[in-house]
Amino acid sequence: MNNICILDNGAYTAKVGLASQEAPQLIPNCIMKAKSERRRAFIGDQIKECRDASGLFYLLPFQRGYLLNWDTQKTVWDHIFSPDCCGINLSEKTLIITEPHFNFHSIQEALTEIFFEEYECDALFRTTAADLSALHHLKSNTVPADCCIIVDMGYSFTHIVPYVKGEKIKNAIRRIDVGGKVLTNHLKEIISYRHLNMMDESYVVNQIKEDVCFVSSDFQRDMKTQKLRYPENTIIQEYVLPDFTTVNRGYVKKPEGPAPEQQTIKLNNERFTVPELLFNPSDVGIQQMGVSEAIMNALDSCPPPVHHVLLENIVVTGGCALIPGMGERLQTELRALAPDDMEVKVIITEDPVAFPWQGGRVLCQSTDFSEMILTREEYEEEGVGASIEKFDP
């Protein structure tokens, strides 16, 4: 296990560690530049060294969910594997790395070449976060017919991937172009329109989203509540913005607490209307199904005899799964859409962000893992095309 490294290379966060570790390190998968320190670029987790994180400029390796900026990604990987961060030397190690669904062959070939040529890996296994999540769930639970639906709520996309007998049903995979990035950008626009201009404050607004947003269990009821005055209005919250002098991260002010010296904004219906985009993408002009409808649509493409098992094993992973109320809302909507004679069970994993990485640990322990990997000998004999034949037959 010490010679196997697992890298869940997400568009927002890279989860990395040796298979012998209990948990991965979470490192921002980007390079950031701050107004206060223009000469220095902060790579990955170096952002914690930044004294003033206002107005950060991001260099992201991923664009629209796919790895396109290779210079940025290589810089982040160099930092991740350096002694200053994880300190993992990939030479003579096997690497398990994740990629998006429907990834382009050109990206896959470049990925293979970089890790064999630049990092001198001994072997490589390329997979998706959903595949690892499914393996983790199916191995840790007694699931009839090895069936489950993985709902991967990532940074750029939300993917719904059904698995039957441990194999994914490719024609049943559904993708919604809404993820954490769309939610943060929408909240940024709302705050900038209603309160003060925060269009350049992605870092701070993302923290606001994590601190105050929730998924409404009854949207119409909450819309009525947010029109009331405090204290009847139980939704409104006052958020204290960071000044990066005395307060480095914003927080929700207690109603009875003293007035803080820092700038504050009052957040009302945006607390639940922003995550609502996952259920109604048309609210921002994305003409696609919401996540509940997409799950049922994916189910229709699966064999009818396993529908009841799939509905009892809906596993939600990814950063957006951490939004409070997500499981309850999905459970309610799917219960209304599913046949009355079938049980519905939505499972929010204990650690939705690290769940796929943990699936990588399960994969390492499988008896046929050594046959699944692409070895350096195979790569040197057949070239980069060997990875396409091995992992995407």
TrEMBL record:
- Family annotation (InterPro entries): Actin, ATPase_NBD
Q: Which Pfam families match?
A: Actin (PF00022)
Q: Which family does it belong to?
A: Belongs to the actin family. ARP6 subfamily.
Where found in the cell? Answer: Cytoplasm, Cytoskeleton; Nucleus
Query: Does the UniProt entry include the keyword Cytoplasm?
Result: yes
Q: Which PANTHER family match?
A: ACTIN
The name of this protein is: Actin-related protein 6
Q: Does the keyword Cytoplasm apply?
A: yes
Query: Keywords, A to Z?
Result: Cytoplasm, Cytoskeleton, Nucleus
Q: What is its main location?
A: cytoplasm
Please provide one cellular component term from the Gene Ontology annotations of this protein: nucleus
